[in-house]
Design brief:
Elements (H helix, E strand, L loop, with lengths): L4 H20 L4 E6 L6 H13 L8 E7 L5 H12 L5 E4 L3 H4 L6 E6 H4 L19 H10 L3 E7 L6 H4 L2 H6 L3 E6 L9 H6 L2 E5 L2 H7 L5 E5 L1 H5 L8 H22 L7 E5 L15 H11 L7 E5 L2 E3 L13 E4 L12 E6 L33 E6 L11
Parallel strand pairs: 1-6, 1-7, 2-4, 2-5, 3-4, 5-6, 8-14, 9-12, 9-13, 10-12, 13-14
Antiparallel strand pairs: 10-11
Helix pairs in contact: 1-2, 2-3
Length: 400
C-alpha cells in the first residue's frame, strides 16, 4: 500500500518521539497520536509497528498489546494489521489464544477487547479465569515479563476511555514501558506540560487540511438541520419522512454521479437510530427501527439492500464495506459510530435523542472518507458528505 505524504511524515515523527521517550527511561511514558477520522490511523499504527520492529538501531526485547474500547472493531483492527503487515511482526492474535501462546513473544501483537478485562462480574471474566482452557491474563503478563520483555500498549480510540480506565488496574497490571494513545479527539489531559518537559510524554498531530488535500477525506459536510427540513415538509409528510426522503434522493443522485464518473461505487446511507429508541416514536406510533424499515419497504428497497447493526440484531453486514456491495442503507445505533471504516458511506441520517439530546460529533466521521481515496474534479457532489438530521443547527459541531 502506498502511503500518503502526511502519513509517512507522521509515522517518522511518531518513531522519533517514541525512541526519545524510550531512551528517557520513564515508565510508563505516553505518546498521544491525534489524527483526523478517516486519515488512516490503523494503517499508520501498523506501519509504525513494522518500522520499529525491524529497525536495527532500535532493537529492545519488546511486544505489543492493542487495546480497544469498542468491542465491534477489535477484529477489524486485527484483520487490517494482518493484511497490511503480512508477516512484518512476529504474531498477531487475540485473547482467545493466550492459553495456547502462554506469553507474548518478541514483537508479538495481542489484540484485547477492553470490556473482557473489566467485566463487572469477576466470575464472568474470561481472561481472569484459570484452568485447562484459559490462562489467566495476569499469568500471561507475568510470563512475558519473566523473559525480560517490555510491553508497548496501543490504546485505540482512547477518547472512549474513562479517566479511571487509563489510570486503572489493567494498565497497572500490564506495566508497559510506553503507551501509544490514538484518537481523532484525545482528551486534553493525557499529557501535561510537565510530562513534555520531563520526557514522560509527547504528541504527534496531523492537520485535518493535510488529509483533505490528500484526497482521503471529503472536502466538507453539507448539513441540513431540523430548521431547514421543517420548511420543506410537504402535505401528508412529517419531519421523519422528509429527512428520509431527502437522504434517499441524495443517494440516487450520488449513485448516478459515480456512474457518470466511471467509479464502481454504490453509495451507502447510514441511518442512526436514537439510543433511547425504546421511547422514540415516529408519527405513526412505531419505534424508529420499525418506522425506518417500513419507509424503505414503501419506497421499494428490497430486504437484501438493507443492513442492520444492533446489539441483538445483525443483518446483511458481510460485504457492506465493499464499494460495490448491494447494500444501500445501514440502520444502527452504537456499533458504526466510532472506528468503523466504510468509505462508500456518503449520507448520514441522525434522529434526535429524546431524553438526552446531545449530538454525537464522532458519528459524522463515518461519512467523511472518500470511496476511492480521491476527489472527483468533474463530479463535485461526490467530494462532499451529507447529513440530514432532526437536531437543531446550533447543537451540531463538525469534527476537526
Amino acid at each position: 500500500m502506498q502511503l500518503k505524504d502526511y502519513q509517512d511524515t507522521a509515522i517518522n515523527d511518531l518513531k522519533t518521539k517514541l525512541y526519545r521517550l524510550w531512551k528517557a527511561g520513564h515508565a510508563p511514558a505516553r505518546l498521544v497520536f491525534k489524527a483526523p477520522t478517516g486519515s488512516g490511523k490503523t494503517v499508520m499504527a501498523a506501519e509504525l509497528l513494522n518500522r520499529i520492529s525491524g529497525d536495527a538501531q532500535f532493537n529492545p526485547d519488546k511486544a505489543f498489546i492493542w487495546l480497544s474500547f469498542n468491542p465491534d472493531i477489535v477484529d477489524q483492527s486485527r484483520r487490517k494489521l494482518a493484511t497490511y503487515l503480512n508477516g512484518g511482526v512476529a504474531g498477531l492474535y487475540d485473547t482467545d489464544q493466550i492459553s495456547q501462546r502462554g506469553k507474548l513473544r518478541r514483537n508479538d501483537v495481542l489484540f484485547v477487547n477492553w470490556q473482557k478485562l473489566v467485566a463487572r462480574n469477576k466470575y464472568s471474566r474470561k481472561l481472569h479465569r484459570s484452568g485447562d482452557t484459559n490462562l489467566a491474563f495476569e499469568k500471561f503478563i507475568t510470563n512475558t515479563k519473566a523473559e525480560g520483555r517490555e510491553i508497548i500498549v496501543i490504546v485505540d480510540e482512547c477518547h472512549l476511555a474513562k479517566a479511571t480506565d487509563l489510570a486503572g488496574d489493567i494498565l497497572t497490571l500490564i506495566a508497559s514501558r510506553l503507551e501509544l494513545l490514538i484518537s481523532a479527539t484525545p482528551p486534553d489531559n493525557l499529557v501535561s506540560l510537565a510530562d513534555f518537559q520531563s520526557g514522560r510524554g509527547d504528541q504527534v498531530s496531523i492537520p485535518h487540511r493535510d488529509v483533505v488535500a490528500s484526497g482521503l477525506l471529503k472536502r466538507t459536510t453539507r448539513i441540513m438541520p431540523r430548521e431547514e427540513i421543517e420548511e420543506m415538509i410537504q402535505p401528508g409528510r412529517d419531519l421523519d419522512h422528509t429527512i428520509l426522503d431527502l437522504a434517499a434522493a441524495k443517494r440516487l443522485e450520488l449513485a448516478a454521479a459515480y456512474e457518470r464518473a466511471g467509479a464502481k461505487v454504490n453509495p451507502l446511507v447510514l441511518i442512526k437510530l436514537p439510543n433511547d429508541d425504546s421511547i422514540s416514536k415516529a408519527a405513526s406510533g412505531d419505534d424508529k427501527l420499525a418506522f425506518v424499515r417500513r419507509y424503505l419497504s414503501d419506497i421499494g428497497v428490497p430486504e437484501h439492500r438493507i443492513a442492520v447493526w444492533l446489539t441483538a440484531k445483525k443483518e446483511n453486514l458481510t460485504s457492506i464495506t465493499d464499494n460495490e456491495s448491494p447494500v444501500e442503507y445501514l440502520i444502527f445505533k452504537h456499533s458504526a459510530a466510532t472506528g468503523w471504516d466504510c468509505p462508500r458511506a456518503d449520507v448520514l441520517v441522525m434522529f434526535r435523542e429524546i431524553k438526552s439530546p446531545v449530538f454525537e460529533t464522532q458519528v459524522i466521521g463515518r461519512v467523511l472518507r472518500t470511496a476511492e481515496g480521491r476527489h472527483y474534479p468533474n463530479a463535485p457532489q461526490l467530494n462532499d458528505a451529507y447529513l440530514y438530521t432532526s437536531y437543531e443547527r446550533d447543537t451540531i459541531e463538525q469534527p476537526a
